[in-house]
Design a protein that fits this description.
heterotrimer; A mainly alpha; B alpha/beta; C mainly alpha; B: alpha/beta; seven-stranded mixed beta sheet; five-stranded parallel beta sheet; 14 strands; C: mainly alpha; ABC transporter involved in vitamin B12 uptake, BtuC; two-stranded antiparallel ribbon; 2 strands
Chain lengths: 284, 404, 309
Amino acid sequence: MLEILIYGAVSSAIYAMLAVGFTLIFGVARILNLAHGAFYALGAYAAYVFTSLLHWPLFIAAPLAVLSVALFGVLMERFLVRPLRYSQLAVLMITLSVSLAVEQGLFITFGSEYRNVPSFVAEKVSIGGVDIGGQRLLALIAGVLVLLLLWLFIQRTRLGAAILAVSQDPEAAQYMGIPTNRIFSVVMAISAGTAALAGVLVSPFLTVQPTMGLLPMVKAFAIVIVGGLGSIPGSILAALLLGYSETIVAYLISSSWTELVSLVAVVITLMIKPSGLLGRRAAF
Amino acid sequence: MKPFLKWLAAASILGLGISTQTALAQQPIRIGVPTAIQLQVGRDTQNAAKLAADEINAKGGVLGRKLEIVVADETENPEQGIAAIKKLTADDKADVLIGGYTSGVTLAQLPHISRAKTIYIGVGAASPAITAKVKGDYDNYKYIFRAFPINAAHQARALVDFINGKLKDDMKFTKIAIVGENAKWVQDLVPILKKGAIDGGSEVKLAEFFDTSTADFSPLFAKVKDSGAQYLIVILSHASSDVFVKQWHDAQVPIPIGGIDVKSQDADFFSRVGGKANSETVGMFAIRAPLTPKTIPFWDEFVKRYGTAPVYTGIGAYDAVYVYADAVARAKSTEADAVIKELEKTDHVGIAGKMVFDELHDVKTGPGLQNLLFVQWQPNGERVVVWPKEAATGKMIAPPWMSN
Amino acid sequence: MKQLSIVDLSGAIAVVALLALAPVLLNSNYFTGVLTVCVIYAIWAASWDFMSGLTGRENFGHSLFIGAGAYTAGFLATVWYANPWYSLPTAVVVAVAFSLIVGFPTLRLRGPYFALAMLSASAIMQRLCLIFWEYSGGEEGLYGLDPLIQSPLHYYWFVLAVLVAAVAILTALAQSHWGLLLRAIRGDEATCQAAGINVTFYKIASLTISAAFAGLGGALYAHYQLQVSPPLFSVVVSITVIIMVYVGGIGSIYGPALGAIMLTLLTELLRSFGEYRLWVYTLTLMLILFFLPNGLIAPLWRRLTERFR
């Protein structure tokens, strides 16, 4: 029982980190970013390059990995996505091609082999008889912290208020003198940065491989739909829901059924309450 | 033009004194290599085939003709796999195909190979279904051979031998759990394994499949631990061995692991997972040891040329090129039917053992033939053979967190 | 809608003649095979465009219908040993049934929601194929299908004829009163509803037609590859089709068909690039997206023939 509780929390935290960035950029800039998984993969690869190849200390390598991916996200938004924003399908296609290009670029540079990132925390921790790798616990704690900071940032700062304003009505916000384009850049940086952080944190216990971004992105997508597109609390709630359901299914039925959980959740959500758990926007 | 060349070749073989000079002007024998070129298994297939072809060419080729390698990317997707076969047979006019990795892709390619009437020697895929049709529909499927590795059913029997001989008798582990990826060759293998272990007197506490895309094995490990198993048999190839081993190590699961784990056969596996494979036992088709007189020279030459130790497909591809070249030399032609007759008579000392085909054109296993060796990763990345007994080079150790 | 002009008709005849003669001129079995795959993708792209291009509801799960058609052919051949020709009509029926099952709950959704619902539906089918491997053949899928026509060249011509018929039927429908309504729904669904148009009926019907051709293409594909496997249901197939439609020019039906042929040929031609192949392909795609936002083929054709109209 306790095992389900702990492992479910770790999966949920990672899912939440991925989903929040995804929902944020959609809620604010209406960008359905199919390159979100690429950010996650790039974060993990950056961590690999900085720690395993360049042997930089962790406290430099990890933030630098996150920052460089955030910069990549900002550049992508500015030069590839912004000119195509008039059409939703064009945005979908360009972000899709960015993700394909990143995946192929990683293939060519690093090959298809799995890459190893050393654990940040090597110790094993025992909680009430449940053994858990220290790295997982770190991912859980970091995930919760980041989400908390993000919430404070949006609720308590001027920039956060501007982000909220743009998400509610971009045109009105612009009339009020809020530079919407600059807000988009900031949000893209946050979105890419959180995805990359998730990638950095999981890289030691998952694996670093060119196609690693696809599945997490599909999960993020599913979570965001279940939680309501554009709603941050919704996606956190949905991340918990899916993280725990998957863990429970893996324990009670079989690991081969876990991948079905999120897909079925999406279909049920869309049939019963398409706007998601906490979404306000009408889906039809 | 062609009949003329044939006549000329015949003349030169008859010893009219113009042998090699004229023959060099002949068309090379083309070896098509359909494989997943983005993966290590694919790169090693190509490299080893090139190595063998270069060696044979250096000695004058076959029937005075040089060997030439043509590669096509079959990826891990059946559509691309079929396109690769069509390209090699129809466009590149390959005389033989040597390659393969994913069983699903190879199975999809079979009817297309048969329609192209081109000999195919598999060196990567293990599903018994691949050669199953050779007997039932010989005329259409006689082109299919498997030189490597021994098929999944043979592997299962070798693993049963390991479970009963090593785990039960030597180590006194009678309760085992079996986990494997959800793929055809594993589905073929697990029932044999389960039956063999139970018949041998062991208890199978848990048998579970997981998805090849599984990224989090912790629920699985917890289940295995709860089942009360003393040893965990793992069977995977396409799923991530790296993740599996790392998570096993990080959670310090108090159960030793071993089995058939294709990616952990790689020479760099130990360093790739940061040493976390310590104490994992892996079924291997060959290692750098005097299995046959050819093993060590091949191994060292391969490492010298390509910088890494070969994975199993490389060993298979190297042998397959030799086996084919010998068959052509004996048949004195590259004509498929004649070569098939000779291939069926193959009795070749290869890298991993003697290579002989059964009536399904599948490579035989047994003492002196190709075998599965159980090799344990030990501290500092050393590889120690622990089973079969006669090949053992050391003792089996427990995971570091269980040894005190 | 404007009627089919002489210019368009002669253009179409020229392209079809070129496609029909190309394998004879090049006389290579390999190339005939490549073209067969091209033409099957063209059927998928055209069928996608009929529903999604006209109504503006991007279907990210077209592979559901493709896979359903292909697996129908697979089951008929390997479980019931039926005459291979039965698989074409049966595949159509099964794909239509699938479209009705997923269409009713999902088609009321808008934009990304519909896209995602369809994507999930196809991904669920792929998973189910893997989980129930005892029945579906699992990862390996089903193999041992018989070809419909033995000669690869004749089969290619047959598939090409199907494509021509499909494009003709879909274009005729798109230019009829019906197509006009679908485009109107794209523009403003609420107004259409207010005007007394049975919006749901038209949307479902167009999805059904789209699925029918996709399923037919799936069966043709299965009898060409002689096997079916779970990747047919994958998102990658749907996305590939959408990219082809995009490059061809959304909403024009002939454009996506030609886009599919062009891109499939391009992937084969790039084989010599080895592992750089997919990278080059992706970059080409990005350039097209960026500099030709309305696609390449349909706008180009309109431009070229402007002065003859």
